[in-house]
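Hi, here's the filled form for the chain we discussed.

Project: internal
Contact: R.S.
Residues: 93
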Amino acid sequence: AMFRIAQEALRNTATHSGVKQATLEYREDGNTAELTIGDHGKGFDTAVRGGGLGVISMKERAHLASGTVAITTHPGRGTSIRASFPLAPGRIA
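And the returned structure, exactly as it came back:
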């Protein structure tokens, strides 16, 4: 789930942000795995564009893996996507 979310977020950055660079950060704290993908591109107005199929698919993938996806975006200042998943013994996000 995390790989596919990262893939879609990076595809969205390449297609829509207007920049050629993004950051990807992975963290674990023992109970939670967290993936953050960000860029300093165009961003978008969530009131106008609540999200296309890519955003919907990221949220659905996270939900199926008991996780969440949060998107923070500001027109002209970029976008950050954070995917969080609970870690259980023997379970890989």
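Let me know if anything looks off before we file it.
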